[in-house]
Design a protein that fits this description.
The chain is about 10% helix and about 15% strand. It is built from 3 helices and 8 strands, in the order ααβββββββαβ. It is globular, with a radius of gyration of 20 Å. The N terminus is likely disordered.
Length: about 150
């Protein structure tokens, strides 16, 4: 039987979450590919470890802001993650404050919108490979290329 290797932090006698900074980065605010997971706060009321860092930056009370900039990219809807819940920023430029998306948070169609130089006031099938109706998530699809299917 092989002995399990201890994580580096444990082997070195430190505990993650007590003033540690994660080296792993996350594109999701939860911490998988772009943002720190652990809090380095020394405040006595700070929550310890990764759970505290996540909970301190989450909010259920605020509204998603669209569009928002995260990772040098403008997002017109909640960011989907294959393993985690969809999320959105609570500011135009992501500043660490975010929330999980609900169906009510999803971006809405913007009317009128411009597509290929023409103005539309409702969902269209023009340009749809499967002839499914769609709409723009910004006033100018030609510029932003942000869209969703209409249901």
């Amino acid at each position: 039987m092989l002995a399990a290797r201890k994580p580096r932090a444990e082997a070195e006698g430190t505990r993650a979450g007590r003033g540690c900074r994660a080296s792993a980065r996350s594109s999701h605010p939860g911490g998988l590919n772009g943002l720190p997971v652990f809090s380095s706060s020394t405040q006595s009321n700070a929550r310890p470890g990764w759970a505290g860092a996540v909970l301190d930056n989450m909010s259920e009370d605020n509204k998603c802001v669209f569009p928002f900039t995260f990772g040098n990219k403008k997002h017109f809807d909640c960011i989907d993650h294959p393993l985690l819940h969809s999320w959105c920023s609570l500011s135009e430029i992501y500043n660490g404050k975010w929330k999980y998306c609900t169906d009510d948070d999803r971006a809405r169609c913007v009317f009128p919108f411009t597509y290929k130089g023409h103005v539309f006031n409702s969902c269209i099938t023009l340009g749809s490979v499967f002839q499914m109706s769609w709409c723009s998530l910004s006033p100018n699809y030609d510029q932003d290329h942000a869209w969703k299917y209409c249901y």
